[in-house]
């Protein structure tokens, strides 16, 4: 019985250590992404050709998504509503089909919304965002 308790405590310590490391990595990733997104504000979009040429003038959004991502599926109605809006041009990018494009923009996770104004990055949302947050960031 004494050996079973020692094994249990050993497994519990290993589990909590791994959980702690995971938590620290997640926090560091969020800090890194926050720093990176602040550095990108005000800079021009890396691509302004093809379908991205629509974003040269006016307000727009580059929406990176994955069809298998549950938060991306929850964002779909918001994105469709905003794309119907005449003032916002939305370019949707499937990261499974265009991973090189996601790398070029520095996207680490989906969903990711990059808000633009006249071809320059205004704000970056990592993860799902509400319609109100997006409209507020674009000052609609």
From TrEMBL:
GO terms for molecular function: protein-disulfide reductase activity. Signal peptide: none annotated. It holds the Pfam family Thioredoxin. Keywords: Membrane, Transmembrane, Transmembrane helix. GO terms for cellular component: cytoplasm. InterPro entries: Thioredoxin-like_sf, Thioredoxin_domain. The chain crosses the membrane at residues 12-33. Gene3D superfamilies: Glutaredoxin (3.40.30.10). SUPFAM superfamilies: Thioredoxin-like. Residues 34-140 form the Thioredoxin domain. It comes from the Bacteria. This is Thioredoxin 1. It comes from Desulfurobacterium atlanticum.
